[in-house]
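Give me structure tokens for this 221-residue protein.
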Amino acid sequence: MPTEHFNILGTSEATLSYIFESIAACSYKNATVTIIKNIDYTPKLPFAIEGLAHEIVADKDIDFSNIKNCLIGVHRCVVKKQVFDYFKKNHGVTSNKYTNIISPNSVIYSTSTLGVGINISDHVVLSAYSHIENFVTISKGTIIGHHTHVGDFCTMNQGVQIAGNCRIGEGTLFGMGAHIVDGITIGKNSVIGACSLVTKDIPEGVVAYGIPAKIIRPAIS
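Here you go.
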């Protein structure tokens, strides 16, 4: 069982919960975590995990020269990109400094491909020839169909189901239990509401929900 240290950039209680659960599921023995803040906010840690030591520090107190095994610790897509841009600009934390945390209780087909900075929770299925770009959060019970492409900085809450041959734009947020039928394209920076059924293409920068999903208003950036 490996021993490892992880650096979580930015703080969000929900996302820390996902990351901690994934680390625990991976059975890292005596894993340690540094939560690096770039804002004046100290998160309430979601729960204590035996053997997972942690500390919360400000970014000004960290030597970033040899940092590795980074993850982005926020949930909202637009904020994830802001955190990445902040640490890249101010501390030189480029994409090659990030790692993936993938629960062993998930199924990843051998023909699936993954970027970096990805957190995949329990009971996720990535089907054949699916492709997940960088800094994507995939929560419990999500299923992504064959030949589906998911762009950078997307976030999927629990139980999302995306059928095959879909194209998901950068920074798209999916509410819990959203369903996307085969062959759909969703533009970047859009929000799909919980329990929605998407049967038609969705343009970029909008909020859509319902059964079937309809465009409700522009998304708030």
